[in-house]
Amino acid sequence: MKSSIVIVSFFVLGVLFGHFEIIQVSAVDNDISFYALCCLMFCVGLSLGNDSNTLKRFTMINPRFYLLPVATIVGTLLGCAIISFLLPGRSVMESMAVGSGFGYYSLSSIFITEYKGAELGTIALLSNILREIMALLLAPLFVKYFGKLAPISVGGATTMDTTLPIILKFSGKEFAVISVFHGFILDLSVPVLVTIFCSF
Amino acid sequence: MFIAIGFMVFGGILGFLLRKKEFRNISKIITILIWLLLFILGLEVGANPQIISGLGNIGVEALIITFAAVFGSAAVALLLWKYINNRRKELHEE
């Protein structure tokens, strides 16, 4: 819980700094975050390769873990379909189209804006940013109440890069392969599923 | 995205080659980089007036859909987790 609060604080601090223009976004731009991400991925790789136990654990993966991408897709779409009945202005298909972003906000919002207009596109952008933020901030809580696979499911398409370090930290290093595999499959499914649900 | 994964693979190979050596500070560096990246994500959200102003009305709708998606996937992931652990127990008992 404590680590979650620290993480939230850094994010909130960033929002405040950005909103009141204490730090200009153009000064940091996308380059620094990309370099930081590359450093992060390098360090994650280093710690994985350096730990001789991780390699042993990889070979002990239960093949049933490879069902996780299916669980994520079914769970997400089911949740979105049910909740759409509480949203008067949204059809089942629109709600599932937004959910099919699986946290991949750039691609899904571009697709949905193209097919369904800016309003649903903005909802897709916000919803999928929120999904990534929740995956990053609430990972310890998901492990506690929904088991070690839940942070991966919640992370959706982001589990092979941005949310991978958090998942390894709270679920354990032995989930690295599953997490990358899961992110890869979900990434591929985003354009396909979004297009399908927008075509209705 | 594939560049970032390339960095991880490179780090993994290097870490494996140097596995006799211990990297004690690596988890601290990872934590600090996570903080930095979240701070930058916050900067981008805070400086984007479209996202900030949209948080009012459209944001509520986005939040509701997100909660449904997140808890739906977490619930099915829990079912899979329980299924896998039950099977494991059965195999041990046999």
What would you say this structure looks like, in words?
- The complex is a heterodimer of chains A (200) and B (94).
- By secondary structure, chain A is mainly α.
- Helices cover 76% and strands 0% of the residues of chain A.
- Chain A has eleven helices and no strands.
- Chain A has helices spanning 2-19, 25-50, 52-58, 68-83, 92-99, 105-116, 118-137, 139-146, 150-155, 164-170, 176-198.
- The model of chain A has no long low-confidence stretch (mean pLDDT 86).
- Chain B folds into two domains: 1-47; 50-94.
- Helices cover 85% and strands 0% of the residues of chain B.
- The termini of chain B are far apart.
- The relative contact order of chain B is 0.04.
- The interface between A and B is large, with 97 and 74 residues.
Describe the biggest sheet of chain A? none
Q: How widely separated are the two ends of chain A? A: 42 Å
Would you tell me the overall average pLDDT of chain B? Answer: 84
Cα radius of gyration of chain B in angstroms: 21 Å
Radius of gyration of chain A, CA atoms, in whole angstroms? 18 Å
- The fraction of residues assigned to DSSP E strands of chain A is under 5%
Output the helix-strand order of chain B. HHHH
End-to-end gap of chain B = 45 Å
Largest interface: A-B, 97 and 74 residues
Weakly predicted, low-confidence segments of chain B: none
Q: Sum up the overall morphology of chain A in one term.
A: globular
Structural class of chain B: mainly alpha
Shape of chain B: flat
Largest sheet of chain B: none
